[in-house]
């Protein structure tokens, strides 16, 4: 599974325009999901958000099916025709307007672009296509090139035609393509070209604001992407987990590692803790043998608990967490003899499935394990009140740390960028070690970006922890691949070229002074960035892992970015 990135940073007004100016009708009997209901719009859509329902708030407690899909329709914002003969397509531009209708008089190719990507399918109306004898094929894509496996005729339902590429209907759609291969014997009308988009009811509980419009767009684009990757209850799905909305290529399932990054985004953007708890439970038994992902699953459980204080879910996941940590420890002791199966999509890490047991990938895996084992030992002691289990995972963390420190002189001498980043994130690097890494593996801006945003996430976390502002901006500015969108903030840093925004290192213990309904403000010294989320303060303040205090406050003025 890969989470598709929304490739267009459209402003909110364009999203709203495309959604509401036409309001193409949906058709009773063929639409599997009801239209958006159970809430109301409040205020305006945040500046920079591509989410047409970015200001819609559901009354989630009143919904009869909390995770059931709802749907809405929108129309293209741009359309181009390439007819075989002159005047083969008439009034094509009306399809970007309410109730638009084009007259098709010959063969040719039509490309339509929507305001942003969504989890959707394509429909249009025509009362005269069947009678005309014209032959039509359709395709969809996340980019301007038709999908390579889709070139099929739409399915007819009376006067409505729907492209059905899989049994769940939806694809990650930014563009759609209509290929009229045979003109038929008479002209026919193509009307109300539209996407029907599915969405799981989800309210924004977090927000982002700065004086930089691009940063605002990046944060909200990342949040929107996470929102539509939620799998709801619908066709061939019981829903309730973090999945994917990209083109169905056979791997549109829940992957543990991707869900680790995505969950972290959702924790800060939304109040969908019930969805996240279900997703953790859903993925606990997935057996894809990707060993780094299992360690990330443990980190997901710990992140979820740190943020929500939900000790019941933590207790329920305990057997699986300990099984995964024990398996990872056994693998670490084999010194690379046990296949990791997959590592991050970067040649330095073995490029995914190609060569996942490269020394750099093994070092990164060991550092991830140290981080997970140390944090798990802490909850064993404070939440489970089980010193025996705490001592066990302190031992695991210490033993793997010894392996890491025996790697060379100094211990990080053979560490590349990814392993160094994971070592910093695990707290293995002293200030002197981190400074040496900064002047070494993090010093070349051409080498800083990982070849996937998923890999860059860990690098940016590490650079944020050691306050390496210049290198962080270089890494952010050069990241180019579009795999895993995140809406997190680490030390005020944000990826400038895509939808990654890394989270702050907030540690809310199991007796957190925060509950989901008050207001939380995380402020970053020297950046002017503030990340807000609603929540009721119960008492005191929460401290970050770096020792900073996160205080309750009210929004008094729009913060500025340098």
Specify the number of helices: 13
Query: How many β-strands, per DSSP?
Result: 21
Task: Give the overall pLDDT as a whole number.
Answer: 80
Query: What is the terminal separation in angstroms?
Result: 37 Å
The low-confidence runs, each spanning 5 or more residues with pLDDT under 50, are 1-26, 480-562
For the sheet with most strands, the description reads: 10 strands, antiparallel
- Give the helix/strand class: alpha+beta
How much helix is in the residues?
25-40%
**Computed Rg:** 25 Å
Strand content: 15-25%
Shape: elongated
Oligomer: single chain
What structural keywords apply?
3-stranded antiparallel β-sheet; single chain; 562 residues; alpha+beta; disordered C terminus
What can you tell me about this protein's structure?
The protein is built from 13 helices and 21 strands. Helix 6 (291-308) packs parallel to helix 8 and helix 8 (359-382) packs antiparallel against helix 9. The strands form six sheets. Strands 3, 4, 5, 6, 7, 8, 9, 10, 11 and 12 form a ten-stranded antiparallel β-sheet that branches. It has a three-stranded antiparallel β-sheet with strand order 13-19-18. The protein is elongated and about 80 Å long. It has helices spanning 12-20, 129-132, 213-228, 256-269, 273-283, 291-308, 311-333, 359-382, 387-405, 417-425, 431-439, 453-465, 469-478; strands spanning 39-41, 56-58, 70-74, 78-83, 89-90, 101-104, 108-125, 135-141, 155-157, 160-162, 171-182, 188-199, 206-209, 230-231, 241-242, 486-488, 500-502, 519-523, 530-534, 542-543, 549-550. The protein has 562 residues and is of the alpha+beta class. Helices cover 32% and strands 19% of the residues. The model is unreliable at 1-26 and 480-562 (pLDDT under 50).
